Amino acid sequence: MTNPKHRLQGLMLASFLFIADQAVKFIMIGPLALESRRQIHIISFFDFTWAENRGVSMGFLEANSEAQRWLLVALTALIAGIVAVWMWREKLRGDVLALAMVLGGALGNIVDRVRYGYVVDYADLHFGNFRPFWIFNLADACITIGVLILLARAFLIRERDDVHPASSGDGIAE
Questions:
Q1: Most CB contacts within 10 A, which of 7, 51, 53, 105?
Q2: For the sheet containing 46-53, what is the strand order?
């Protein structure tokens, strides 16, 4: 059975990340007026740069019409729903928190897509002309980190289980 404490922690983390994502986007759109300024230089390798992502990761599945926009909202909402159910059923705290990161980020981007018709991106990491990532936002970072944690945990836990097989208590490994 899932530990109710882990569920609460997951819901709290997802909520916090969703609110933080929306707050940062509010600051980018409102007080910093990034949309009209287009770019704000921060340091030599990082700027705030306005970008409207009408697709999903790296611009895939770009929505070029209202119908496509709402299909993309429905698809991403379905995926977020699956992640929420998975998080609710998950037993391991680390996996619950990683799924919460994915869920909080997904919800932040879904709200953007509903509100604006695109996802607001602004984080521009670059080294000269080399950009290791597309312009992204806090929600994207949460989703990416959450997925990487899930993958790392899956490989590490599986390897640990292979090295130390579970036993039934009678000294015989199952």
A1: 105
A2: 39-43, 46-53, 119-125
- 80-137 confidence digits (pLDDT tens): 999 999 999 999 999 999 999 999 999 999 999 999 999 999 999 999 889 888 899 9
Q: Which pTM value belongs to this model?
A: 0.84
Q: In this structure, which amino acid lies at residue 41? A: H
Bridge partner residues of 41 (DSSP): 47
3-state SS track over the chain: CCCHHHHHHHHHHHHHHHHHHHHHHHHHHCCCCHHHHCEEEEECCEEEEEEEECCCHHHCCCCCCHHHHHHHHHHHHHHHHHHHHHHHHCCCHHHHHHHHHHHHHHHHHHHHHHHHCCEEEEEEECECCECCCCCECHHHHHHHHHHHHHHHHHHHHHHHHHHCCCECCCCCEC
- Active-site positions read 121, 140
How far, in Å, CA of 162 to CA of 11, rounded? 32
